Each structure stands twice: as C-alpha cells, then as structure tokens.
Amino acid sequence: MPSPSSLAMVHTAPRQLVAQDVKLPEIGHDDALLRIEACGICGSDYEQFEGVLRSPMPAIPGHEPLGLIERIGDGAAARWGVDVGDRIAVETMLACRNCQNCLTGNYHICPNRRIYSYIPLGDAPGLWGAYAEYMYLHPNSIVHKVDPTLPPELAVMFNPLGAGFRWGVEMPGTQPGDTVVIMGPGQRGLSCVLACREAGAANIIVTGLAADQRKLELARTFGAHHTIDVQNENAVRRVKEITNGRGADVVVDVSSYATEPITQALDFATLGGTVMLAGTKGFKAVPDFISDKVVMKEITLRGAIGVTSSGYNNAIRLIESRSTPIEQMHTHRFALRDAELAIRTLAREIPDEESIHSCLIPDR
Ligand SMILES: [Zn+2]
Ligand SMILES: [Zn+2]
Are residues 98 and 26 in the same domain? Predict the structure, then answer.
C-alpha cells in the first residue's frame, strides 16, 4: 500500500525549497497517480529556483518526470494505453485540446496550456511537479511508455534527447548529408548531436567555450566531426574552412544568455540555410544583428520552445536501442531532499563540479 502522503520539495520563495508532505489525491475515471522514479533537471529549473521565470509560489517544481503508474482510472488507462506498474515518460505541457493550435497539432503552444511544475500547490491536488515521490496525472496528460529495464537516470533523458530531435532535426528538416552547426555543448546541444547523427547528417560541428573542453570531447564521442572553441579560434573562419566556404545547412543555437551566437549563426549558415533559435537570452536585445544577412541569404530563422510527441518518441526509441553512449552524458544524481544542491551544481555554484545531465531520484 502506498503511504497516504508524498514527500515533496516545495518552492516557497526564490532560492528556497522546503520539504513538505502533500496528501495523495483520490484518483477518478480519467486521471492517475505516478510514482516518480527520476526527475531530470535543466537550466529552466535553475531559472525557476531563482525566481526569474514567472512561476507561482508555493509550487512543486520538476517538469521532466519519469515514473511508474501507481493508480489509474479506467478511462485514462484506455486512452493512454497504460496500466498500473507501467513505466512512463510524461510530457511537460497540459494543453486544452480545443483551441486552434491544439487542433492543428501545435498543442505545445496552446495559449490555454498549463505546464507541470508551474501550477500552484494550492490548486488541488497540489502534486503538479516531479520534485516529489508522487505526481498527479491530469486527464489531459500525454504519456509515453518506456522500457522498464533501463536505469531510471538513463530513461529520464527522453527529455533533453526529445529536444535534440525536435530542434536539431524535425524543425529545421535536417537531411542525410547535411552540415549542421550546433552552438552550445550542454545536454541539449549534445542531444542535438545524437539526433543529427541519427538523421544522417554528414558533417556535425559543435561550438563551445574554452571551459567546455570535456563537453566538446563528449560531442566528438557522440558523433560530432569537428568542435570549435570559440574563445581561442575564429569560429566563422573555421566553419568556412570545414565546409569549403559553403557554410552550414542547419545552425542550431542552444546556448543560453550569450547573444553572440545569434549573430554568428547568420555567418555560419549557407544560402537558403536554416537557423534554429532554441536558447533563451534573458530577454536581451541582440547587438550587431544584421537582418540584411537573413534577407540576402534567404535564411529561415525559427524559434523553438518545447518538444512534441514525435520528438519524444524518437528519443525514447533511440535510448531503448542502447546504440549510443548517451549514458556518458549523465554526470549527477541526487536524492530528492538534495534538490537545492542539484540545482546549484547545475548552475556551477559548487566548485569543481561540472554537471551535464543530472536528475533527482527519490529514495525507495
Ligand atoms: Zn527541462
Ligand atoms: Zn489548446
């Protein structure tokens, strides 16, 4: 029998997470309760923790949930095709299913959407995030079955890898033979390498800072053909050399805060190329942005936020195939009560610790 309450790390104020017991909800015909096995963490966890993102408080963070179905209503079981005991990955967005965007397949930008981990604790049943032993699954949830024999810290990588497929392959239309420049070698950039490799990209170039040597090395292990240290090399010249002056078919910027990658991306792109903007910059303007380059080269400039089912499906299939060394990206796992340490490690606030992919694992 499950305990009647769930331990949860509740975000009560900027930079404050407090352990609380939250009562487990009754489950009806169309919803379910998930026992969390792992919760991935990423840069937006840090922004939420800091209070930069407009997130409600108190609330339970944790938007990358992997877990086992603990209880489920008959309606939800039939619609989702899962049952008690199944391991599932849960999508972050709870879309309305009725607006124009939802009805045209763009449910991740539903204007009425709610996002797991950004729903107040005061909205019953409160368990809306994965920094907890249990999470509530709303009837509008989208879930994906995952091989239960994978280690949880590996299975939970469905989230960054899903972004790799959507931002690195699906949205820019990356084709076999393409040249792709990926700017930023964090977990999302490395995931783009795996996805582009899978899509048959012939020439994958990853850029990073001097401090990113280890990550750039991992990029090469994952299949990148070239890496560039933008602080010690002339990146535009290097990309020109590598591509015999042609430039890249696809450029993906997943770096956060820095704006230089956006201006550089326009120089990296070939005529008719596509530039994906997938890293947020703290709402800063981009200095030296020359829009004429977009015009003259007929560059397609696209923004990407979030991931949809096809990206997650591709990610889960690739993880289940065990054909990549993706586990080398996993660097840290933390107990639920150490959520704050996990976030500070991710944010490089802990000396000598460098996180690439990390997750929280509740005690069993
Ligand atoms: Zn995330
Ligand atoms: Zn909608």
Answer: yes
